[in-house]
Write a structure and sequence with these properties.
The chain is of the alpha/beta class. The chain is built from 7 helices and 7 strands; from the N terminus they run αβββαβααβααβαβ. It is 46% helix and 13% strand. The strands form 2 sheets. A 5-stranded mixed beta sheet has the order 1-5-4-3-2. It has a two-stranded parallel ribbon with strand order 6-7. InterPro entries: PucR_dom (IPR012914).
Length: 196
């Protein structure tokens, strides 16, 4: 259900974007989009951020470019998308290597792609994804409330949870009493389990 870097790269508006590093982070979740050209952009980063920049304020400073990637890692940012040709020029190999090491996707954007052509579709996907998550949460809430009010027993709630959680086994409190810790570990390795 999450909107990831992988999904963002599959969108039409990103067809000319090139993933140049950090492919191990394609499943990072994106929850916001920002554009920054300030020298202190490190201070404004947020978790799950899709950061877009031309790199103007750090164009002549490889260490500042590397610091940006390190800062994205520290804040659990999602991706760095740069219009390299505009001000930075050639893509520094050190930056590519660091993005691979950190599994932070590094994307090269076309210089003639307007920022709005990136930010608007991304924000539209983020908002639509959040709306779907809210709908799903409300559906689950209504279902569990109905089961709890109509049946008032843990077994029915367990069954409802199993149907929602798709393959996760729900085990009622006390059902495993007497099992050794080793047996419980084996059971947990073989099944995805939630204990009530």
């Amino acid at each position: 259900m999450s909107f990831t870097v992988r999904k963002a790269l599959q969108m039409d508006h990103m067809k000319d974007a090139e993933l140049i590093g950090g492919s191990g982070g394609l499943d990072r979740i994106i929850s916001c989009v920002d554009i920054s050209e300030t020298p202190d952009l490190y201070e404004w980063l947020r978790p799950n951020e899709f950061l877009i920049t031309t790199g103007y304020s750090i164009r002549d400073n490889l260490e500042s470019q590397m610091k940006l990637l390190r800062s994205l890692l520290q804040t659990q940012g999602a991706v760095l998308a740069v219009k390299f040709g505009r001000f930075i020029g050639s893509i520094p190999q050190e930056l590519v290597d660091l993005s691979d090491e950190f599994d932070i996707p590094l994307i090269s954007l076309s210089d003639n792609l307007p920022f709005i052509d990136i930010t608007y579709p991304l924000m539209q996907c983020i908002v639509n994804n959040q709306a779907r998550q809210l709908e799903y949460s409300e559906k689950i809430y209504k279902m569990l409330t109905k089961v709890a009010l109509e049946t008032n027993n843990l077994e029915s709630i367990s069954s409802a949870l199993e149907s929602i959680l798709d393959g996760i086994k729900v085990i009622q409190h006390g059902a495993l009493d007497g099992m050794t810790r080793e047996a419980l570990k084996i059971l947990n390795r073989r099944n995805r389990i939630v204990y009530l």
